[in-house]
Amino acid sequence: MEAHPQDVWPLGQHVCVLAHKNLNERIQTCQTFMNTYNWQLPTVVDSMENTFMKTYFSHPERFYAMRDGLLMFKAQPDNAYYPIAQIEKWLVENVGN
Questions:
Q1: Which of 7, 29, 32, 93 would you call most buried, defined as having the most Cβ atoms within 10 angstroms of its Cβ?
Q2: From CA 65, how far away is CA 89, in angstroms rounded?
Q3: Please, which pLDDT band fits residue 8 given cuts at 50, 70 and 90?
Q4: Arithmetic mean of pLDDT over the chain
Q5: Is 70 helix (H, G, I), strand (E, B) or coil?
Q6: Residue 53 phi/psi, 5° resolution?
Q7: How far apart are CA 73 and CA 80, in angstroms?
Q8: pLDDT value of position 5
Q9: Measured between alpha carbons, how far is 70 from 56 in angstroms, rounded to an integer?
């Protein structure tokens, strides 16, 4: 399932949805994803005004780690590349293997 709407940001042959018209549609799509893929991690959905995206500059994508509602880590892209080793290092040091 693809989080990006196919009529706005097509990303290939994933299961796609159209742009959400309201927050209930956005939440339902998230719940469908979680059920389909047996997603067990805490998950949040942005507002229809995209408050998180605008506040934390998460477009088109970023890697974040949050703990107890606080932003603990934000990976910064370098020339459209994410330093996966940096993300992995933070996870190992703060979460474990």
A1: 29
A2: 12
A3: low
A4: 83
A5: strand
A6: -55, -45
A7: 18
A8: 64
A9: 12
Q: Which helix (H) or strand (E) holds 84?
A: helix 84-94
Q: Taking 80 as the threshold, does the pLDDT of residue 24 lie above it?
A: yes
Of 40, 19, 42, the C-alpha closest to 3 is: 19
Cβ count near 90 (within 10 Å)? 16
- Residue 12 makes CB contacts below 8 A (sequence gap 6+) with 2
| Residues 46, 57 contacting (CB under 8 angstroms) | no
pTM over 0.85? The answer is no
The helix/strand/coil state of 71 is strand
Round the CA-based radius of gyration of the chain to a whole number and report it: 15
User: CB–CB of 64/73 below 8 Å?
Assistant: yes
- Token pair of 67 as six digits: 């703990």
Phi, psi of 83 (to 5 degrees): -75, 90
CB atoms inside a 10 Å sphere around CB 83 = 13
At 15, the pLDDT band (50, 70, 90 cuts) reads: low
